Amino acid sequence: QVEEQLIELIEALVPEDCGVEVECRRIMIAEPLRELPGAKKLVEALKWPAKEVLGIELKSTGAPLYTDARHYAEAGIPTVLYGAGPRSILEANAHGADEHLQLSDLKAATIIVADALKTLLR
Fold this sequence. Notes:
Layout: H1 2-13, H2 39-54, H3 69-74, H4 89-92, H5 103-121
């Protein structure tokens, strides 16, 4: 319904006789990554090493990202995203020409994920 209303709104804003053609079509749609049973265990496994390595309390948050993780979640596999580097899309210039990551952040994230895996595999 929202998609239909948005298309109607956009099309209504362009006068028919102005020489501008408007075409609205969906290129792709993806369901958001949703928390599944078992995901809390993954988050908890990341919290302790993040506190030890970075001195921060990890919080579960949502982010407007388009990732392949959604395929796992759609298949019923508990999934979380954890990445190295800046904590926001803007800070990292995510998907921009100069998206960046400090090597020290990569090293810290590698240690955190490895320690989380040790916890989960015990």
